[in-house]
Amino acid sequence: MKRTFEELVAEAESVSVDGWDFSWLDGRATEERPSWGYARLLETRMAQAKAALDVETGGGEVLAGVPRLAPLTVATESWPPNLARASGRLNPRGVAVVSTGDEPRLPFGDGVFDLVVSRHPVTTWWEEIARVLQPGGTYFSQQVGPRTVVEVTEFFMGPQPPGSARDLELARAAAEAVGLEVVDLRMESLRTVFHDVGAMVYFLRKVIWIVPGFTVDRYRTELKALHDRIQTDGPFLAHTTRFLIEARKPA
């Protein structure tokens, strides 16, 4: 028996969206993963590091999955619900989770870390990253690329301008402007599929920049149209973009 629009939306509206764990979407939405395997590459770099910083750790999910951390590993997070979750996951492994604001500066001295990592940062504080890196140190990050899931944004908000602040060459230029050498930069476009309207509600509540100001009440008409479309035509297809950047501070 198919669930109704109201049932799907009510369920998705009531579930917690704290942290950065998307397991609630299992069986309801799928997203291809980049071929480079960020978690695997992170493990390799972390095992070789002596002092590492994870910027915008979210709920600590990614860092907690690394089997061997650097002897000194620190994480930062600014959103209070994520801060509590990250501390619970990472403190038992000896990782200090430090609260930061939404603007620079990072609360660390110059040249403290030989590795700084970040998965899907909202903003990359290039000057601060360069400052806290040791000479010869590395910044390693997987980031949201240009016009990611733009099909979703345009379904709810209409056509969007073609430009994007998340362009790869802008990231390269920003890194080089603070004296870092970009040694790896690549991007992929990945299929993202939503199988029911509840999955979309959950996603938009969690990833708040896709449709800024999203609430079910505000977009109920569009959500009902999406539900009807999925019932008639099948799952809603969008494309996520991700890019990998690795930059090194000259020795």
From TrEMBL:
GO terms for biological process: methylation. The keyword Glycosyltransferase does not apply. InterPro entries: 23S_rRNA_MeTrnsfrase_RlmA, Methyltransf_11, SAM-dependent_MTases_sf. Gene3D superfamilies: Vaccinia Virus protein VP39 (3.40.50.150). Residues 53-140 form the Methyltransferase type domain. Keywords: Methyltransferase, Transferase. GO terms for molecular function: S-adenosylmethionine-dependent methyltransferase activity. This is SAM-dependent methyltransferase. It comes from Streptosporangium album. The lineage of its organism: Bacteria, Bacillati, Actinomycetota, Actinomycetes, Streptosporangiales.
